[in-house]
Amino acid sequence: MNIYADYGKVILNERYIHRIKENEIKKHLNGGIISIVGMPRVGKTSMGENLLKDEKLFIKINFAMMESADDFFKSMVKKFYKKSKKLGYDFEDEYEDFKEDSNVKEAFFEFFDFVAEDLENMVYFFVDEFDYAEKLLSRPYLETLRAIFTQEKSTKDKFNLILVSRRKLFEIEGAESVEGSTLAGVTKETFLSLYKDKEIDEYFSVLNKYIEVNDEIIEKYKELTGFHPYLSDIISFELVEGLSIEEAVEKNKVKFYEYFSYVYKILDEKDLSDALISVLLRLPFEEGYKIDILKNYGIINDKYEVFSKLFVEDYLKNKMNVESFTNIWYKTENYLRKFVKCVLSKNYPNLEEVKRKYQNERFLKNALFYMNEQKKSKMNSMKNISFIETLSTSGLFTIILKEWVFFEPYFKCDDGYIKEISKFITEVRNFISHTKEIDSKNIQKASMYCEELIEIVENYFKLNKC
Q1: What secondary structure letter does DSSP report for 74?
Q2: Interatomic CA distance for residues 372 and 366, integer angstroms
Q3: 32 near 147, Cβ under 8 Å?
Q4: Angle 171-172-178 (CA atoms, 0-180°, nearest 5)?
Q5: Distance in angstroms (rounded) separating the CA atoms of residues 189 and 165
Q6: How far is residue 282 from each of residues 165, 205, 222, 320, measured CA to CA in Å?
Q7: For residue 110, how many other CB atoms are within 10 A of its CB?
Q8: For the domain 21-191, what is the CATH superfamily, name and number?
Q9: pLDDT of 371-390, one tens digit each?
Q10: Of 75, 241, 262, 276, which residue is most buried, by most CB within 10 angstroms?
Q11: 3-state SS class at 159
Q12: Which residues of the chain does CATH 3.40.50.300 include?
């Protein structure tokens, strides 16, 4: 069986790569709170579980499964009780008292305060996906965690809380800085990034048992994945199956693209995408702390190189083209609306006549539906909008082509060319709207069409008042 078949999942078998950060974390497993932060699928959960799997009171909780703060506290107590019972501890009375108390937060504190006195084993609560705590844990619950794990004399040296997330604790709490956070100031925080140094050597030592690894292969991994654990494992799986690196990447382009999209979304949420683009384009950037965060995450290295060539060439540059096209299309659409409204107004007594003329056409029915929805909205201040304002992309082109006799003088081309432009731009716009991958050449071509349309409309308004 291919040992890389489980890539993307928690690794607990013989191919687990020991991380340099393990020693740093071990030093602090003597009671308190530890936060492991990093991008998705860099091995945070695998490292934590491998560190703690042999501990007798190791309790894992996935916060993504919690529906409320009370659920989280109940889960911690219940799982601890079951594990401790197997070790011979008798906390039956304390557990029953906890279940009967309607104030879960206070009962939670009292439970662990009581049981701490009789504990001989260190307890390790390992909380995965802690990002989901953002909407569930209010300050009183955070204060309770802080008290048990860092302040209360009877508990702080017996209970460890290990939190795994892709963001820092103060961000999850919604604080503006560490100073405003309940947990961050009393937590040992460590970033887990991509493989490096001894980790890389160990990774290829394992892979070498299944395929012949040489310097050229290692260099390719560096170029394409930056030694990212998940992306490296995708390639390793295919190499063990007999494919070349090039074939592996081509076969799994969608997986790479989906992961890059996820990473970019996180960077965008953290207001880091501008810093990344500045690094990519070698532009000066004043907010140096953002660059430091990108380094911590392993997105860039000390030489300001982005971790993966594929991330740059196949995703970021395409992303910039998409954003550039989106901007120019919005401008084009606004120009066309004004242009269509002006031309029609000069050739019809009023726009109601145009509406009656095409009232059974699908493009107009859609526009009228959205127009009525806009007018019903209490938040909308444009109560006198016309159907022109609610025409879709294809709807604008449709009415231009249907009224071609009035528009032809300004386009100075045949309607076949406008049909071609309409079809192409609409398809590109729809692909982007549905976040589908699209060739950058098509984006550039659509942008050129938009520039051409903008020039036509601008020339019209130089000669015509509306």
Answers
A1: H
A2: 10
A3: no
A4: 45
A5: 11
A6: 30, 36, 21, 15
A7: 15
A8: P-loop containing nucleotide triphosphate hydrolases (3.40.50.300)
A9: 776 666 544 444 567 888 88
A10: 276
A11: strand
A12: 21-191
